[in-house]
Amino acid sequence: MDNKNALRAGAVTAGSALMMLLMTSPALALTRDDGDDPGQSMSMAATLGLFVFLPIALFLGIAGLVMVLDKSDRPQKKQA
Questions:
Q1: How many beta carbons lie within 10 A of that of residue 13, not counting itself?
Q2: What is the pLDDT of residue 72?
Q3: pTM, whole model, 2 decimals?
Q4: Within a domain: 52
Q5: How many domains does the structure of the chain reveal?
Q6: Whether the predicted pLDDT of 42 surpasses 70
Q7: Which residues span the domain enclosing 52?
Q8: What would the 3-class secondary structure string for the chain be?
């Protein structure tokens, strides 16, 4: 009985994925829309800095501030 249910679930999943692929329209990225005004492209270094290194630096800065400004004076108790 489990084999039949697994086969049915696989068929439904494959069918819905196929329908989704067939029904979606192309992105039409080459056609400009009204009011579309793209700016200058960013260099690879600027892109990595903005989307990789800046979030990591912000995370480390906030985590460092939390650790430095921690007000707990009590030592941690071991829980049994």
A1: 10
A2: 77
A3: 0.50
A4: yes
A5: 1
A6: yes
A7: 45-70
A8: CHHHHHHHHHHHHHHHHHHHHHHCCCCCCCCCCCCCCCCCCCCHHHHHHHHHHHHHHHHHHHHHHHHHCCCCCCCCCCCC
